[in-house]
């Protein structure tokens, strides 16, 4: 297993099963069995388009190493800290990892009531929480259906039905941002916006969490606009330094 992970760690653009078998000198059947288990655990992601495999974001040390390699945390830090300073609330950066979202950075504002509902390194099934929902909602319909099937067991503990998620996906697409209105913690809400790859795929998301009374009506739209503007800034910086094709596979 470690040999397979080592091979993938040296190939950020991903490898096909046959290439992994060649480099590890293991049989294809053995490699396929190992990869299936690693994908299930979130250690490895499989791309929908060509079936290639890339290193995932679990455990946290792998997540942070991958994020540093892609420079996402560094390039987004100033924009996200600015949002935390302006709103006074908590800002999160999440990255897609297979059928989950991984929190890779958190910035705290100065409002006295904190909404620290997500820790750096924590994983949630796609669709659970505003950033995670933003990563799910703006995928193609076929991908959404596939992802909901893959993380159904993981979502069960949150008691969020497929019907509810489909409604939230529709709302997010209509509004242009994802909204978690007390879905996870009563009295706590959040707004999320995706960061897209050059082909339109959501590969990361930024979100703002606050007590629900601070994310109603006009202020919700103001926060969503702040996030959208930050995403444009982050996207411009990433385009100059990141090969988007290697992000968010699986």
From TrEMBL:
Give TM regions: none
Per the UniProt entry, the signal peptide is none
Limits of the HTH iclR-type domain: 1-57
Q: Where is the IclR-ED domain?
A: 58-240
PROSITE patterns per record: HTH_ICLR (PS51077), ICLR_ED (PS51078)
Gene Ontology BP annotations:
negative regulation of DNA-templated transcription
Which InterPro entries does the annotation name? GAF-like_dom_sf, HTH_MetabolicPath_Reg, Tscrpt_reg_IclR_C, Tscrpt_reg_IclR_N, WH-like_DNA-bd_sf, WH_DNA-bd_sf
Q: Which UniProt keywords apply?
A: DNA-binding, Transcription, Transcription regulation
Question: What Pfam families is this protein classified in?
Answer: HTH_IclR (PF09339), IclR_C (PF01614)
How is this protein named in the record?
A: IclR family transcriptional regulator
